[in-house]
Amino acid sequence: MLQLADNKELKHYPVLAGEVLETLVPGNGPLRVIDGTVGYGGHSSLILRRNADAVLLGIDRDGEALKEAEANLSFAGARFHLAKGSFGDLADHAAGIGWLSADAILLDLGVSSPQLDCPGRGFSIRSEGPLDMRMDSSSGRTASEILNTFDERDLEYIFSSYGEVRGAQRLAMEIVARRKVRLWSSTAEFAEFCNSVLGRQRRPGLQAATLCFQALRIAVNDELAQLEKGLAAALEILSPGGRMAVISFHSLEDRIVKHFFRQKALDCVCPPEFIECRCEKRSELRIITKKAIVASDEEIARNRRSGPAKLRVAEKTKREEQER
Ligand SMILES: C[S@@+](CC[C@H](N)C(=O)[O-])C[C@H]1O[C@@H](n2cnc3c(N)ncnc32)[C@H](O)[C@@H]1O
Fold it and tell me: Cα angle vertex 48, ends 238, 253, to 5°?
């Protein structure tokens, strides 16, 4: 089992770390790994320690996180490379260091604990800060720009589609009315506003503001489109027999991963009334986790953030399997 003590220089526990290692780094021998969400280097550090022949490309949109990753992975010498950008472009980042394929790919989605805990980044409903929410603070539109410029219909779409917020239409209308008096700029003010306009949501114990912040964050960072792009890019670059592991933290992400794996695992997509296959589709992935892996009670007790995590793993089919 994984020794987290090996990882004592890190300020947080990587989620489902033992399970990620077991599925992506089964033994020794040369291994090219892409960690598309390297963050502070938690999973990457464990991967590089577990296999002394592994080389790793870590990608993140967050320049601050990359600085921390650089320091945390320094023990591995020349066995790692870092790149700033989205995992949606992982094939370009890999080509940038001369890699045309990879044997293992990890995506640990969403925001990191350090991002959430920093009030200045604007991700948290619990602390006062600017309504920013960009993972890459050097580019793109902030949450306050969205709240202050999008029309009512687009705001409603964001809250209903990305937060599954009950009362999204009313919220959008109130946001637009309020900004005519004063523009949106503060996290605490927006969180309080969401709770007072929306009241209780479906799940007990869940504040309306949590769902609204999730929705805004997804819109600011274009998270769902990047995930779809990243999955397709990962499949493209994986070597036959290589594996991809994706950890998601809410149902919208998990649905995309599950659907992608299922579609790519299908061997034929002909209508059922066809007696013979005419589509020539061959499965490109084999699903390793029939059901998503979730954190143990022990892990959740140690790290509350692992509670909603779901890990799905799939393996790229080998060429001879595809040709059958
Ligand atoms: C949950 S944290 C990853 C933590 C990391 N696995 C570790 O153990 O330290 C998610 C990270 O992914 C980054 N991220 C989220 N979406 C991204 C994307 N589309 N491309 C690149 N990085 C992304 C965030 O900036 C954040 O640093």
Answer: 50
